[in-house]
């Protein structure tokens, strides 16, 4: 009976933890990120601090041993170089983890951080094959040293087709849309975007009209430079007025610079040489960036979140000697983590496994000396429960029944956890709302943890 009560309590918490709700004003869903805007700005920088502490500890040790490390001509040791490289890897992994949250929301709810995406279908839905016709890329297109997320959405009417560029700053916890336009874009290594128009407006010309934009670091966005159109002679009803085609090549151009008053057809008086001069002012020497776009499907970004969480786990585990008995880490390492956890507990710690309810085969409990300490539920991606008292060195992401609440929060933050956006559930933490994340919930009495539940998590599942 006790096991059934515990199961119902955990099921109620699990319903809140994995309700499949789309958060349009929060963690990764609300702003399309997979991390809550509120918690991302308040909790995640603290997680950064935890990571920083690990790095600081490592750096301190390296300073003490600096005399034993080989230095280059600038006085930099090999250890310094490794530390800097590791910090850069963590930085990039965290950014991609965040973008994984945005992509999860795109696939599940047709939402970007600041806009809805049309499907162009009567039932407002897309199957997996249709969804994969959309695509994305992760690349440093503005050349600021930090990768941006490019989302190209084409499975809708022409007027709804877009390509958007988002930038996530892991220091401020802010995500910003730098640019959006019809998805016919060319990116250059000098921060320029050439955006072709969705239609070749009149007057008729073989040259396709386009607008040029340049990245502005101060505003972290692209600003318009101007547009370019052409008018070809010899088309019936659209012959060029006398005197316009000064170089005699049969084409005149319109250069509409940003901020200038539009002159309608009076603007068509530029020659090819004048166009080249104008373009040379901001395009000379620029090279097109080779952007690799991937189909919009989970397989395309399924490594983003696990890679980040595993890197955090490596940093958080550097000072631990009990990681081999950490049931939470099994979720990161093992495809069949429930089986592995049960085998570990039964073979190494003598935990007896039972199925107390014959009508619920997905439910297993683990007992030691007659005490029910563990539970395993093989539903909704699976979950592990740990309650009552600590068994030797067994933990879940470093926490266990008996640890203080403050101590539990500090340890979990080191593994990338932060407060979930569910105000109804106290001591509920997640690593993100996108595919591939983890949630953990624990109850406490007198500031001491009593009951822990951990499971894979996605806010869009269910």
> Shape from CA axes?
elongated
Structural class: alpha+beta
Q: Biggest β-sheet, characterized?
A: 8 strands, antiparallel
Mean pLDDT: 84
Biggest β-sheet: strands ordered side by side in the sheet: 14-15-16-17-21-20-19-18
Based on DSSP secondary structure assignment, what is the total number of beta strands? 21
Tally of domains: 2
N-to-C terminal Cα separation, in Å?
A: 28 Å
Oligomer: single chain
Low-confidence stretches: 1-70
| Strand residue percentage | 15-25%
Indicate the radius of gyration in whole angstroms: 28 Å
Percent in helix: 25-40%
Alpha plus pi helix count: 10
What keyword list fits this structure?
462 residues; disordered N terminus; 6-stranded antiparallel β-sheet; alpha+beta; 21 strands; 2 domains
Word description of this protein:
This protein is 29% helix and 25% strand. By secondary structure, the chain is an alpha+beta fold. The chain has 2 domains: 2-72 and 302-457, no CATH class; 89-295, no CATH class. The strands form 4 sheets. An 8-stranded antiparallel beta sheet has the order 14-15-16-17-21-20-19-18, sandwiched between helices. It starts with a helix and ends in a 5-residue tail after the last strand. 38% of the residues are buried.
SSE arrangement:
Blueprint: H1 2-17, H2 37-42, H3 44-64, H4 78-109, E1 111-112, E2 115-116, H5 128-131, E3 135-139, E4 148-153, E5 162-169, E6 174-181, E7 185-187, E8 192-196, E9 210-216, E10 221-232, E11 251-257, E12 268-270, H6 272-283, E13 294-295, H7 304-316, H8 327-333, H9 337-349, E14 352-354, E15 363-368, E16 371-377, E17 383-387, H10 405-414, E18 418-419, E19 428-430, E20 437-445, E21 448-457
Antiparallel strand pairs: 1-2, 3-4, 3-13, 4-5, 5-6, 7-8, 8-9, 9-10, 10-11, 11-12, 14-15, 15-16, 16-17, 17-21, 18-19, 19-20, 20-21
Helix pairs in contact: 3-4, 4-7, 8-9
């Amino acid at each position: 009976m006790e096991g059934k009560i515990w199961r119902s309590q955990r099921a109620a918490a699990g319903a809140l933890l994995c309700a499949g709700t789309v958060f349009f004003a929060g963690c990764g869903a609300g702003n399309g990120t997979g991390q809550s805007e509120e918690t991302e700005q308040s909790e995640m920088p603290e997680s950064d601090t935890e990571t920083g502490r690990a790095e600081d500890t490592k750096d301190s040790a390296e300073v003490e041993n600096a005399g034993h490390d080989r230095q280059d001509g600038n006085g930099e040791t090999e250890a310094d170089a490794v530390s800097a490289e590791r910090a850069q890897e963590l930085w990039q992994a965290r950014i991609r983890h965040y973008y994984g949250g945005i992509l999860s929301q795109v696939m599940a709810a047709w939402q970007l951080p600041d806009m809805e995406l049309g499907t162009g279908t009567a039932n407002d839905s897309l199957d997996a094959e249709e969804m994969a016709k959309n695509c994305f890329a992760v690349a440093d297109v503005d050349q600021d040293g930090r990768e941006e997320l490019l989302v190209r959405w084409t499975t809708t009417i022409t007027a709804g087709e877009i390509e958007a560029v988002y930038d996530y700053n892991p220091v401020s916890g802010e995500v910003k849309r730098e640019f959006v336009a019809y998805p016919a874009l060319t990116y250059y290594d000098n921060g320029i975007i050439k955006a072709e128009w969705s239609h070749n407006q009149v007057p008729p010309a073989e040259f396709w009209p386009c607008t040029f934009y340049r990245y502005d670091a101060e505003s972290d966005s692209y600003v318009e430079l101007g547009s370019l159109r052409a008018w070809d002679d010899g088309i019936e009803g659209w012959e060029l007025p006398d005197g316009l085609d000064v170089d005699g090549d049969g084409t005149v151009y319109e250069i509409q610079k940003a901020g200038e008053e539009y002159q309608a057809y009076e603007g068509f008086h530029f020659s090819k040489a004048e166009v080249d001069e104008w373009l040379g002012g901001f395009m000379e020497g620029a090279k097109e960036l080779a952007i690799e776009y991937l189909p919009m499907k989970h397989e395309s970004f399924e490594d983003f979140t696990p890679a980040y969480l595993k890197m955090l786990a490596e940093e958080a585990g550097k000072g631990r000697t009990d990681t081999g008995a950490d049931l939470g880490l099994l979720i990161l390492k093992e495809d069949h983590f429930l089986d592995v956890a049960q085998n570990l507990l039964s073979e190494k710690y003598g935990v007896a496994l039972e199925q107390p309810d014959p009508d619920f085969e997905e439910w297993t409990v683990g007992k030691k000396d007659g005490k029910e300490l563990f539970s395993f539920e093989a539903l909704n991606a699976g979950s592990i429960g740990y309650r009552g008292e600590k068994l030797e060195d067994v933990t879940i992401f470093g926490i266990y029944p008996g640890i203080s609440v403050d101590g539990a929060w500090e340890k979990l933050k080191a593994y990338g956890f932060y407060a979930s956006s569910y105000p109804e559930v106290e001591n509920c933490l997640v690593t993100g709302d996108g595919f591939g994340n983890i949630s953990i919930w624990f109850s406490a009495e007198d500031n001491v943890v009593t009951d822990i539940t951990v499971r894979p998590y996605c806010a869009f599942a269910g």
